[in-house]
Amino acid sequence: MIVIFCPKCGGGSFISDEELVKILEGTRPLKAVIKVHYNCRACGDRFGRLVHENLEEKKRDLSGLGSQSSVVSSQQPIQQKTESEAAEGLRFF
Fold it and tell me: In the chain, what is the straight-line distance between the N-terminal and C-terminal CA atoms, in Å?
């Protein structure tokens, strides 16, 4: 995670909004130009930065999430222990 500091006071900031400016077609890999709006935590000033992101990396990351969710759903349900089994697990020394 990259920390962006306010140009006015030097305080920390958080992302308040993102706006797609343009998709750069004809580039390999496919990239997008995004304007990220930040708000300063200290002075409340709003400022922005232009960034470019690799869309093919994002696509791979999202496709990886889909395979993880199917793995989680295919797991066995957790079996409930009876009170006697749970009591055996609790031993005080």
Answer: 45
**Dihedral in degrees, nearest 10, Cα atoms 5, 10, 11, 16:** -40
In contact, 4 and 41? CB cutoff 8 Å: no
The residue with greater pLDDT, 62 or 31, is 31
Residue at 80 is within a domain: no
Q: Domain range for residue 32?
A: 1-70
Higher pLDDT pick, 79 / 9: 9
Query: Quick one: tokens of 83?
Result: 């009170």
Give which of 38, 41, 42 is closest to 16, Cα–Cα: 38
d(CA 81, CA 71): 24
CATH code at position 4: 2.20.25.420
Q: Are 12 and 3 in contact (CB under 8 A)?
A: yes
